[in-house]
Amino acid sequence: MQMTYAEAIRDGLRVELKRDPKVYMAGEDIGPFGGCFGVTAGLFNEFGAKRIVDTPISENFIVGHALGAAACGLRPVVEVMFDDFLTVCFDEMANQAAKVRYMFGGKAKVPMVCLTINGAGVGAAAQHSQSLEALLTHIPGLITVIPSTPADAKGLLISAIRDDNPVLYYEHKQLLGVTEDVPEGDYTIPLGKADIKRQGSDVTIVAWSWMVQKSLAAAEELAKEGISVEVLDPRTLVPLDKDAILTSVGKTGRLAIVQESCKTMGFGSEIAAIVAEEGLDLLNAPIVRVAAPNTPIPFSPVLEQAYIPSTESIIAAVKSMF
Amino acid sequence: MELSKEQLFDFYQTMVTCRAFESRVSELFAAGKIPGFVHLSLGQEAIAAGVFACVGKDDKCGLHHRSHGEMIAKGGDINKMMAELFGKATGTCKGKGGSMHLADIDMGLLGANGILGAGFAIAAGAAFACKYNETNDITLCLFGDGQSNRGPIHESFNVASLWKLPIVWICENNGFGLSNPVKGHLATDNVSDRASAYGMPGVTVDGNDVLAVYETTQEAVNRARRGDGPSLLEFKTWRWHGHFEGDPGNYKDPKDQDEWLKKDPIIRLANMLIKQKYATQEDLDKMKAIAEAKIDAAVKFADESPWPDVSELYTDVYDRQL
Question: Does the residue B159 lie in any domain?
Fold first, then answer.
């Protein structure tokens, strides 16, 4: 069935809310208002105030309470309205949710999902546009899901809700309206399985979220110039499908990594390090990273467009490898 | 309130057991048998004994970093607790948590917490689960006067009252946030003065009077079970030792310390029991001997237990090996 990315997420939520009475949602304006980006529209009417819970503006509470409820047997799906706001409840994620299973000797399980949204390009400036998905990958105990297509969004979300670990699930503002055919009903994609979004033989681009689309557009252009690009979407950063990345680089001999966030210590740094450690002999050229500059995200459309990695910058980076 | 002899004896047994446990921990720490940080609540035993007499096994409890007594009072396994403090494989958390992360989820003990202020939302989440599951269970959240100044308390106090969650907020005001006396860190005379801002009852009670602690808590627990929402209880007491073992507590006025040592909650209960002819000195001695024997057995258990296998470093990060 044709669905937008936002509809696919909503469909995944609906499947799980129907299947398991222990699943509920909590977050700011997710109820009758339908979510800041409309993702939860209609769920309040369908499932009621007990299952779709509007909270005050209280991110520490939203994430912290989810951990307590999950430890007591519920399966919360909470929303932190923007990725930028996750920094407000960093303790609840990094020191609490990530660590309780380990600190308590495996006796606590925390099946919770935290939805949030990334992305620049909407004129929201420095505090509502970041893509901070790398930050919490540094903390063992959390899973990071970051889908780039509607079908992946649904399949990965259902897997995330059924997972017994705390999961961070990153939507993207620029993808909400992207439409494709999405399997109906119960549909899962295993966490930790990369997907080759385009087959190629000359260079591997690893990209996730919105940057998959930009990389596919770049690949299309590069094909016209005789460069065959493989686009690999890891889909989850933790767990990371290392084998798929190394296999692809083994095939193409070149690796470009495209990330929307600023260059220093983005997740691309980790991928580059892994390939350097485990696959240096596979490479025919140095690894290239395409990323935003190390600046906050500016407001003016002119500046913001200069900030976001563009199809043209990806094309130029790939060409520089030959 | 008329209390049975059995109940009064239970108070005494719990208090002398907490005292014996922590006195021994203090000695063992000084002797180098216990690694890391240890925070003791010697002198505060009436709170643990009085509070936990009001709840059952299925009621939940969020704790803080100074929570050995609470664990014992709720029925935690003393052998496993001692083994955990030693860092042994047989510990409550397989030696992965230590004193600051003692937890026993099956007993409703949601964990001591090394991050002060993180426990409010976690406990509120447990209370949310009690309400969501339509059980008659309630949640206690214990915290110190120092912790009462963390920001997340505001979010959880507000939401708990807004949603009438079945929770009792219990402040153990022991006079100091580490070295900072209450008059140096609290803008009001009492922590409970804040209750009215959240539309809940607040009361300050002598925390060295186990009967007063019990009666006050019972009323708040009943209110929570009835669905009438949270209460804020403040029990004023005094921390006999330093903030952590090894802290000589030089910031305390020796006169104050002497005054409070005279208010020993155990001697106070013992005097009452003898004066009112509930107990003979022999009865009390017998209970102390039972406590000491339990602690002897716990130390032996911990001492003879194996260290964790080094492979345990890698387990319990997730529910599976990623």
Answer: yes
Distance from CA of B97 to the nearest CA of A (A): 4
pLDDT at A35: 97
Q: Point out the residue among A68, A91, A238 whose CB comes nearest to the CB of B110.
A: A68
Q: CB distance A69–B129 less than 8 Å?
A: yes
- Identify whether the C-beta of residue B241 lies closer than 8 Å to the C-beta of residue B69: no
Distance from CA of B101 to the nearest CA of A (A): 6
Interface test with A, best of B317, B320, B321 (most A CBs within 10 A): B317
Q: Which residue of A has its CA nearest to B115?
A: A95
Inter-chain CB proximity A238 and B162 less than 8 Å? no
Say what angle helices A59-71 and B152-162 make with each other, to 10 degrees. Answer: 70
State the pLDDT confidence band at B202, using cuts at 50, 70 and 90: very high
User: Which structural domain range is residue B27 located in?
Assistant: 5-305
Q: pLDDT band at B2, cuts 50/70/90?
A: confident
Angle between helices B265-275 and B281-304 (to 10 degrees): 140
pLDDT band of residue B1 (cuts 50, 70, 90) is low
User: Measured between beta carbons, which residues in chain A are less than 8 angstroms from residue B152?
Assistant: 60-61, 64
- CA distances A286 to A216, A254, A283, A317, B257, Å, are 21, 8, 7, 11, 68
**Residue A209: both structure tokens together:** 């979220």
B115 contacts on A by Cβ (under 8 Å): 91, 95-96
Q: What is the DSSP string of A239-294?
A: S--HHHHHHHHHHHS-EEEEEEEESTT-HHHHHHHHHHHHHGGG-SS--EEEEE-S
**Closest residue on chain A to B138 (Cα):** A72
Q: Which residue from A minimizes the CA distance to B99?
A: A103
How many domains, chain B?
1
**Contact list, A50 vs chain B (CB under 8 Å):** 132
pLDDT (average), residues A63-90: 97
Rg (CA), chain A: 19
Q: Mean per-residue pLDDT for A268-286?
A: 98
What is the C-alpha to C-alpha distance for residues B269 and B272, in angstroms, rounded to an integer?
A: 5
Helical (H) or strand (E) element with B30: helix B5-30
A172 is catalytic: no
Chain A environment of B111 (Cβ under 8 Å): 100, 103-104, 108
Fold type of domain A2-181 = Rossmann fold (3.40.50)
The percent of residues in chain B predicted with pLDDT above 70, rounded, is: 100
Question: Which CATH code for domain A195-319?
Answer: 3.40.50.920
B114: domain CATH number is 3.40.50.970
Residue A45 confidence (pLDDT) above 70: yes
Confirm whether A2-181 and A195-319 share one CATH topology.
Answer: yes
B241 within a domain of the structure (yes/no): yes
Report pLDDT for A270: 98
Whether B322 is covered by a domain: the verdict is no
Report chain B residues whose CB lies below 8 A from the CB of A163.
Answer: 319
Give residue for tokens 């409550």.
Answer: B92
Cβ–Cβ < 8 Å for B205, B233: yes
* Chain B CA closest to residue A98: B317
Inspect the interface and report whether the beta carbons of A103 and B92 lie closer than 8 Å. Answer: no
pLDDT, averaged across chain A: 98
Residue B257 lies in a domain: yes
Per-residue pLDDT of B94-132, as tens digits, reads: 999 999 999 988 889 998 999 999 999 999 999 999 999
User: In chain A, where are the structural domains located?
Assistant: 2-181, 195-319
Kindly report the pTM of this predicted structure: 0.97
Nearest CB to A68 within list B123, B133, B317: B123
